[in-house]
Amino acid sequence: MPFLGKDWRSPGWSWTKTEHGWKRIFLYGNPLQDNREIDLKGLCNDNNEHLFVGDVCELGTTKRKKDLYNNNTKSQFVFVDKWIYVQNRSTKERHVYSTLGEALNRLDFSSAIQDLRRFNYVAKLFQLIARSQLTSLSGAAQKNYFNILEQIVRKVLDDHYNPRLVKDLLQDLSLTLHNLTIHVGRCVLVGNVNIWMCRLETIHKWEQQVNNLQIPKQMCSGMTFNDLPLHMQNRILSELSDAYDIINVGQAMPALHCLSEDWILWKKLCHFHFSDKQFCRNLVLSNSNKVDWKLMYFTLKKHYPMKEQYGDTLHFCKNCNILFWKDRQLALFFKDCGHPCTANDPDGCLVPISPQHFIDLFQL
Question: Which of 17, 98, 130, 295 places its Cα 20 to 30 Å from the Cα of 180?
Answer without folding.
Answer: 98
